[in-house]
Amino acid sequence: MTTHWIPLQDYDRHDRVWALDPRSGHLSPASGRCHGFVRVSSEKNPVAALFADAGRLWLQYGDRHWDCEEVSVRCSAAPDGTREFTITGHHGPELRLNYPAPRPEPFDPTYDWIDTLADDFLLWVAERLAVPDNRRQALRDHYMAGFTPA
């Protein structure tokens, strides 16, 4: 991975662009063509991002990053709604996050899978990376070329 700031589209506020420093996980306001998406979170939760750089697809959590070709990613749900997001490398789990599933408030009968993905960035990432190699390559190529924020 190169050592420069990477412009990413904010996952929640599509009109906002952030520059990510992959070494530190820090963000700063930016502009320009985006090379992936970032979820900006609170002080308790590190930044999470999926992006392309140096011809590879990368997953970032806080100041840690992984080449998506070298790890597998899984998101599962327990009966109580708790979710577990796991990044597994060659030597076993490298990151495990347990967190409550987002719940619409007040109860929304139209809340569906698209809403769930919009509310849960880590689930969205796991879905993007669970595709066949040719679709993952298309995603990497799209992110490498860059796209304008919505």
Notable characteristics:
7-stranded mixed β-sheet; 3-stranded antiparallel β-sheet; 19% helix; globular; 3 helices; alpha+beta; 150 residues
Fold and architecture overview:
The chain is of the alpha+beta class. It is built from three helices and ten strands; from the N terminus they run E-E-E-E-E-E-E-E-E-E-H-H-H. The longest helix is centred in the last third of the chain and has 13 residues, at 133-145. The two termini are 26 Å apart. The mean pLDDT is 90.
Give helix and strand order, one letter per element, not per position. Answer: EEEEEEEEEEHHH
Oligomeric description of these chains: single chain
Strand content: 35-45%
Spatial order of the strands forming the largest sheet: 3-2-1-4-5-6-7
Mean pLDDT: 90
Question: Rough shape?
Answer: globular
Distance between the termini: 26 Å
Number of helices: 3
Helical content class: 10-25%
Given helix and strand content, the structural type is alpha+beta
- Annotation, overall tally of beta strands: 10
Could you tell me the radius of gyration in angstroms? 15 Å
Biggest sheet, open or closed, and with what strands and sense? 7 strands, mixed
Low confidence ranges: none
